[in-house]
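[job 4471] stage=fold_predict status=RUNNING
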Amino acid sequence: MTVVSINKQAKLSEHFTLAELTETKTGIENVPNEEQVNNLKRLCRWLEELRRRWNGLYGDGDDPIIINSGFRSPEVNKAVGGATLSNHLTGCAVDIRCIGIEQALRYAAILLDISDLNNEDFDELLIEQKAHVIWIHFAVKPSCNRRRTNFKR
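[job 4471] inference complete, writing structure tokens
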């Protein structure tokens, strides 16, 4: 597999960059290969639709969708305590920052609607909480998506 160098300006979609979906505070190199970049692009199609619908219904017209974590190399995943078989390792998952449980529920509802309307499944849609921090873990694989949903504390 070909390794892709991180170009901070490279866009995966209209509003999401490669740098944004590979950012890490670990100080460890976090460079996806071509297949992982393609997986990130697939995810970004969902994120763009989430952003469009959120802004049409609830946002201020141009609210961004903030990504806490996207692609993780095995070393980064281990450093942050990620699951051994995490979808982040393949570029198939993102953690989306939420301002409270209401926003998380609304994001989740929009993602479910996108799935239903487009007749396209996702792999994981998890609302996760640690202390007072809430985020959505969302994953879409190229195939064999499980449509797994859960609320994890």
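[job 4471] summary: Residues 12 and 41 are 5 Å apart (CA to CA).
[job 4471] exit 0
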